[in-house]
Amino acid sequence: MSTKALAIEEKICPLEKAVNAISGKWKIAIVWQINEGKKRPSEFLRGIKNVDRRVLNQQLSEMVKDGLLTKTSFNELPPRVEYQLTDLGNGLLKILWDLNEWGKSLDNSVG
Amino acid sequence: MSTKALAIEEKICPLEKAVNAISGKWKIAIVWQINEGKKRPSEFLRGIKNVDRRVLNQQLSEMVKDGLLTKTSFNELPPRVEYQLTDLGNGLLKILWDLNEWGKSLDNSVG
Fold first, then answer.
1. Which of A55, A84, A94, B75 sits a CA distance of 20 to 30 A from B53?
2. Which Gene3D superfamilies match (chains A, B) (predicted)?
3. Which of B42, B99, B101, B110 should we substitute to test contact with A (largest number of A Cβ atoms within 10 Å)?
4. Mean pLDDT, residues A28-53 taken together
5. What value of ipTM does the predicted structure carry?
6. In this structure, is residue A3 part of a structural domain?
7. Are the CB atoms for A31 and A96 separated by under 8 Å?
8. Does A107 reach chain B within 8 Å, measured CB to CB?
């Protein structure tokens, strides 16, 4: 492995992590839903097309683990769970808006 | 399909397109290489770790098709081919820098 290749690999690494973190289709949708004021898994299920509860819960857990979301469980009956964006999650949201705008240009250009 | 689901699907669509356009590992690397002044496929091959010529050419073709890159063929012997970012490609590059910075925070947070 050349020094040059290594340098480039290290440079791309944070970017790769970022892309991996947003590559899950529903992760982007979840961030979007929270931005729109939704908090509860049942709201995400209604708001996101073709997502099932198992996949949703898996994605939510990964996002909590990655530090994008915080999960709050309320000691009520029936149990209530809410998610919100962390500062890190809000940083992603800003970039997603930029990406969304850029995606519109891509759309026009591809035609 | 409810109106609500449809609205969200449409809203996410440009963002999904954007994510798809950058999800190919070498596409990000290619944009980065061009930003560093590289232009020719042989330079990309040397600069990107573990990429092969066939995959590289496939990615480059897709990026030209998507309007991210322009390809210029010089009528020389041996034939010379150069790629550069379009305005659309440069728009992506700016976002990739933001995503790269964000990826560093993710790294620290994940630990």
1. B75
2. Winged helix-like DNA-binding domain superfamily/Winged helix DNA-binding domain
3. B99
4. 90
5. 0.79
6. no
7. yes
8. yes
Domain, as residue range, for B33: 25-106
Is A1 a member of any domain? Answer: no
Instruction: Identify the H or E element spanning A14.
Output: helix A3-23
More confident residue, A16 or A61: A61
Q: Which residues of B13-24 are buried (b: 16+ CB within 10 A; e: fewer)?
A: ebbbbbbebbeb
pLDDT over 50 at A74, yes or no: yes
Q: Number of folded domains in chain A? A: 1
Q: Does A92 touch chain B (CB under 8 A)?
A: yes
Residue B6 — pLDDT band, cuts 50, 70, 90?
A: very low
Q: Is residue B44 within 8 Å of residue B55, measured between CB atoms?
A: no
B8/A14 touch (CB, cutoff 8 Å), yes or no: no
Burial class of residue A81 in the structure, from the number of CB atoms within 10 Å of its CB (0-12 exposed, 13-18 middle, 19+ buried): middle
